[in-house]
Amino acid sequence: MTPPTSDTPLDAIIGKDEFAAAASADSFDAELAKAGAHVTSRWGMALFLAKRYPLGGVGLAIVVIFVLVAVLAPYITTHDPLATNPAISLAAPSAAHPMGADFMGRDLFSRVVYGARTSLAVAFGATILGVFFGVLIGLASGYLGGWVDLATQRIIDMLQSLPTLILAMAMAAALGPSLTNTIIAIAIPKLPSIARVIRASTLSLREMPFVEAARAMGMSEMRIAMRHILPNTLAPLIVLATAGLGTAILVEASLSFLGLGVPEPHPSWGRMLSESAAEYVRTAPWLVIFPGVAITFAVFGTNLLGDALRDLLDPRQRTSN
Amino acid sequence: MPDGAVASPASPASVPVLEVRDLKKHFPVRKGVLRAITGHVYAVDGVSFSIARGQTLGLVGESGCGKSTVARAVIRLIEPTSGEVRILGRDILALTKAEMRICRRQAQIIFQDPFSSLNPRMSAGEIVGEPLLVHQLGSSKERQERVAALFDRVGLRASQMNSLPHQFSGGQRQRIGIARALALDPQLIIGDEPVSALDVSIQAQVINLMMDLQEEKNLSYLFIAHDLAVVEHISHRVAVMYLGRIVEHAEKRALFASPLHPYTEALLAAVPIPNPRLKRQKRLVQGDVPSPINPPPGCHFHTRCLYATEQCKREVPPLLEVAPDHWAACHLRQPKADLHPAQANATVNPSSTRSSAPA
Amino acid sequence: MNNVLETESADAPAKSAAAKTVLEVAGLKTYFFVRQGIVKAVDDMSFSLKAGEKLAIVGESGCGKSMTALSILRLVPDPPGRIVAGSVRLDGRDLLKLSEAEMRKVRGNHISMIFQEPMTSLNPVWSIGNQISEAVMLHQNVSRHEAFEKAVEMLQLVKIPEAARRAREYPHQLSGGMRQRAMTAMALACNPHVLLADEPTTALDVTIQAQILDLILELQERLGTAVVLITHDLGVVAETAQRVIVMYGGKKVEEAAVVELFEAPLHPYTQGLLAAVPHLAAMSGLAPARSRLKEIPGIVPALVNLPKGCTFAPRCAFASDVCRNEFPPYETKRPGHNVACWHSNQLDGVRHA
After folding, report:
1. Which positions in chain A touch C299 (Cβ < 8 Å)?
2. Are B199 and C300 an interchain contact pair (Cβ–Cβ within 8 Å)?
């Protein structure tokens, strides 16, 4: 016999009907109502969410800061990240150079700031590319079924059997080092997981009565896929995509570290590490610390944000299990 | 062929809203890597009935009898393997996709599970208005008005139009489903166990609503259920299905007062009655329902039937009019033979079951 | 089909009048502590059960009937739930005071439970014979071989054909009705004093339901087990119970002998339920069909936002101010018939068919 355990969801014990009413009629919406009229503004809503999911708020803040830093790079730096100045080679952090200078005399602060541009461009680019094609493949595979599904799944299997970094390295090596090639090389390993998740959602949604109802009213299959299936796959997708940002940053750093990623002249945190880690870690530790901390915080921020998004989106999806 | 139009005096010559002839749906069973077909699930195996305007046909049976498959085949949510389905006289199986789309306005469906029959990401108003959008009926403003009117009609407040499904209770969601089905003003609504998942007190509300709507709009219902009491309440005619075939079909009172098929007898005998003073004498059937992949030869019910003969094991009994407008598929209930005393009652209205206090 | 039914006089269950009390629940409260607040799933539930008696607890979804049974067996998920008050005395011993180890000796042994969904309640990777023998070996000092023989014996008792062969089969090889029989066999293997049956037939077809109910009644009589049948189906209640408790919103609102409850209910909710159930007119000789069913307006309340006062007041036709302010006391209005309602006097005789 399997008696309910502490993992048994409440709505299986108390009864779906009034658990759903209890869980929804109060928590989010009631709290929202309690927060008052000013919540209807977008800022109000943002503040309300930040209060309810503090860690997510922190994550979002970090991500936003990085984005701002990347966008406003020219305005917050005083030096050209590419300008070399042998006179100040390996200079320690000072007022003029808040993060010191590297072995070529380049201002580390501006390199880190412009490195944010690179990292974010690659991360967002790869994620968007991966999501776009992943959704397309997953949706088609799940909805059409048959041999399309079979063939696609085998290809996805093959892609997924290779470790992300190895695959990215192979692609980058094959395509050659450049910004766009890095984006592609990182996007491709993302495809399988996204396609899988979308396909799984599609398969279960396809059988739902509300999809049957849509067919019964004469809706075309394409419209059903766009209007009924896709929006209901968004929740796990958003979580996956946000967490994927962090992975993309890491992979880019790794690729650049190995020399396969973003080449000169774009500053890249990973490449900064590879240039200085072995030789200068004891003599000029700031060359390793600052890029390393930047990578860490960026990934940390995206992970917090991803977790909070999952918490936010998942419980409300529970009513349709 | 059982024809509902004959039984109802209201519409003597009008075309039946739904007419089904020898409907079959066989699902192939595929096994192995190459997915070879090793057999079939005979989900629906030759079903015929018709529903007249403003009438309700209750389709009852236990799990595996094929009633849900019939519900879907009849509006081509599942493609029938063979047979004929006419909605308002038109053979829908011969229609192209575009023509079928227009025909769908005549027949809509309500589902059993109030939780999964509504898209959780769409507001209630959007859900109800979607059929109008798909068929491009009216301007945006007109659609809004129609949705508000529908909400009102099914007992919901127009202020709830922007709420999401999870904010409603089960009974309210079912009302949303009904409003959606009504949006295109169909003649026929198929209810696939529409009240089975609701609490008793809510069931009553929804049943009453459906009956009111029927009276108001002269709707026809194909009401599928396993709860005999609910079916008896809402139907005009009742058909009993067993393993893909209709075994009995009659006007409601005749069927419940004097069932002719042993399975119907057994079903009625098995229903627990909310009256502690009445005790059942004996159960009329043992054993489990056979699998629809390997149905028994001859009469499907012979493995559990108390009266089974050799003929029952070999020959499939045809659905015959054993008594006026009372059809049964049983070798022991022939129109000519006079084997069972119950049959004699079929032609006479058993008045003893009618005398009762009004509700 | 009049020859199938016969009218039975409402004789009191005389034999159980002298029997001893085997289960006594007093003031049981089970609350769930969730983010939204406190869900009072079971609020002050009390009843007693005599040896061999058949008690039905009836109510709609969320009324707390299942949770009552789980509380008796101390299977409430903790967190978020907890039994916060009350006592559950089995043969005099308070189960709520036992340690978990002692409680394990009671479950399956002195009190058993069968659940609604036999597929998920049986372990899919063990044969049913093994599952039953496990229950036997846990509580009795017998060898594995003897336990398995006992398991086969139990399967024969629950009328599974070819019991010896079936005992080696797995749950997925059995039909729904068979699985429910197997679960019943498992529950009764150690001859418990009390059997809790939580909606045992809801998931089954009506012909199988009838078989299972017959089986439970037959076994109950043969083994002398007291049965608490939890259900929402009033037909099942009428067929099987001797005494009925009606629950609403986590509270007990009425308790009476079965015939009296059906013929003269004293609580508006009970009366509403009875009027809302469509009856097979031909079978029960009641109102003609195609009339409107009597509705109970409104919806079942969310257990976390229960109104002050009587939980049924928002839907009750007789509700007055006192109803909305204070939950009515539980009183004995007639011998053996208790109800919690301020206006039960008004209902006397107002039974709608």
Report:
1. 21
2. yes
Higher per-residue pLDDT: B187 or A3 = B187
| Number of CB pairs, chain B paired with chain C, less than 8 A apart | 202
How many angstroms separate the Cα of B187 from the Cα of each of A38, A69, B50, B213? Answer: 48, 63, 14, 11
Q: What is the mean pLDDT of chain B?
A: 84
Cα(A242)–Cα(A247) distance, integer angstroms? 9
Smallest Cα–Cα separation from B165: which of A40, A207, C35, A209? A209
CB < 8 Å to A13, chain C: 41, 66-67, 70, 77, 81
Q: What pLDDT sits at residue C117? A: 80
Nearest to residue B86, comparing CAs of B12, B1, B10, B27?
Answer: B1
Asked if residue C244 lies in contact with residue C56, where contact means CB atoms within 8 angstroms, the answer is yes
C107 DSSP assignment: B
pLDDT at position B237: 94
Most confident range, picked from B178-182, C220-224, C294-298: B178-182
Place of tokens 């229609």: B95
Chain A: residue nearest C32 by CA? A10
How far apart are the C-alpha atoms of B77 and A212, rounded to whole Å?
A: 7
Q: Is B233 on the interface with A (CB under 8 A)?
A: no
* Residue in A with minimal Cα distance to B108: A216
Name the CATH superfamily for B16-235: P-loop containing nucleotide triphosphate hydrolases (3.40.50.300)
Q: Residue A8 is encoded by which pair of tokens? A: 């048994």
**Cα(C254)–Cα(C270) distance, integer angstroms:** 8
- pLDDT of residue C173 exceeding 80: yes
Give the Cα separation of B188 and B219 in Å (integer). 6
Q: C283 vs B256: CB contact, 8 Å cut-off? A: yes
Radius of gyration (Cα) for chain C, nearest Å? 21
- Write the single-letter amino acid at B152: D
Residue of chain B minimizing CA distance to C174: B288
Q: Does C284 touch chain B (CB under 8 A)?
A: yes
B199 touches chain A (CB under 8 A): yes
Q: Extract the tokens encoding B288.
A: 């489990």
Domain boundaries, chain B: 16-235, 261-353
The ipTM estimated for the assembled molecules is 0.80
User: Could you tell me which residues are beta bridge partners of residue B85?
Assistant: B20
Chain B neighbours, 3+ Cβ pairs < 8 A: A, C
Q: Output the pTM of the full model.
A: 0.80
- pLDDT score, position A22: 41
CB-based contact (8 Å) between B165 and chain A? yes
- State what percent of residues in chain C have pLDDT above 90: 28
pLDDT by residue (tens digit) across C196-246? Answer: 999 988 878 888 888 888 888 888 888 889 999 999 889 899 989 999 999
C-alpha to C-alpha distance for C30 and B255, rounded to whole angstroms: 47
Q: Does C286 touch chain B (CB under 8 A)?
A: yes
CA closest to B198 among chain A residues: A17
- Backbone torsions φ then ψ of B36, nearest 5 degrees: -75, 150
- Which pLDDT tens digit goes with each residue over A70-128? 998 888 888 888 888 888 888 888 888 888 888 888 888 888 999 898 889 999 999 99
Q: Which two tokens stand for residue C272?
A: 């509403």
Test mutation, A17, A154, A215, A316, chain B, max B CBs within 10 A: A17
Q: Which runs of consecutive H residues, i.e. helices, occur in chain A?
A: 10-13, 16-25, 27-35, 42-52, 54-71, 73-76, 108-144, 146-161, 164-175, 179-206, 209-216, 221-224, 230-258, 269-280, 286-317
Distance from CA of C296 to the nearest CA of B (A): 6
Q: What is the pLDDT of residue B128?
A: 95
Of C5, C206, C214, the CB nearest to B226: C206
If phi over 0 gives left and psi between -120 and 50 gives alpha, with beta otherwise, what is residue B100? alpha
